[in-house]
Amino acid sequence: MDLVDSSLTARSAPAPAAPSQTDTASQPPVTTRDGAPQGTAASASGITARAAANQGAATPAIDPRQKQKGEAKTSRIPIKIIPIKDMLRKPDWIRKPAPKLGSRFYEMKEILRDHKLHTVCEEASCPNIGECFGKGTASFMIMGDKCTRRCPFCDVGHGRPDPLDTEEPYNLAMSVKALRLKYVVITSVDRDDLRDGGAGHYADCIRMIREHSPSTQIEVLVPDFRGRLDKALDILEATPPDVMNHNLETVPRLYKQARPGANYEHSLKLLKDFKARKPDVPSKSGLMVGLGETDEEILQVMRDMRAHDIDRLTIGQYLAPTRHHLPVERYVTPETFKMFEEKAYEMGFQHAAVGAMVRSSYHADMQAEEAVRNSVKSSDKLDCTPV
Prior knowledge:
4Fe-4S, two-stranded antiparallel ribbon, iron, metal-binding, alpha/beta, single chain, eight-stranded mixed β-sheet
């Protein structure tokens, strides 16, 4: 998940374009929190309707050096989020039994603590943590556990970041080696306090892992490097990952509510510019559904991704971490997820991981393997085309 700002504005979001009948006619209606079918304007405006302006409300003093989560984090944004009492009930298709925590899970936790490392799995309260840790996989979160932004959909803490740990690249490499990982995902908090946005630290981690585990593939899930894009891309071009990932997260109409510190066009440009510099490195991006977007808006973002040379896609259901985060406006049906997947391949994505519990880093190794197989199949078809 790209960790982004939450300086919400008091402006209401404009009404969305109606979804096309060809894309949604075959889908069963799903009632949202507003009592409207999924994809309607009533559900699409839900975020704004539930984020009440409260500029004059007093907020308790908070030590900026402390990590702020939940209410402490979202209470400082301009438009306050009213805690939801009646949260949407999860449908059967999204309920997931908690896995039994075996010895591998606790071994992972011990290795991570021994090497003073954080994971986005833990910090963002990922619902798949038991499964992934149980299989010995994790998405490492570098540069600390305090983000410089206040994203109202994310559970990673906000606060004044600590200085970079110069030993972290080595500790990360030792963890990767100890876990015998063949594929590793590195992400981070936003570090707007750093002149390169943290790109140099990413590069140090990539170099150190390659030195100690040369056969390990490395995927990075980077922030937007706001105001530092060219410098960051210069650094990552010199030390490229095996997969370059940056999440768009949601549709442009909802950026002011969900990603006010980010810019939709800037995020697209980040991926396109890196692809132009390193055309052989696959690019990847992810979306959440359930924040009030329409199906057609999701399809349009997918078209924008392909127009900006993005190769791989993930789409998953948004789940509110607490009552103090943005509410879930709808639960997307398996049939709709299937439609998104089919449309993705029609648009030419190498790979599309689409489903309620899909997250950007979930089974990232298998996503990469399948993308390679799909690419080979596509090349074989081209080779067999009659001239």
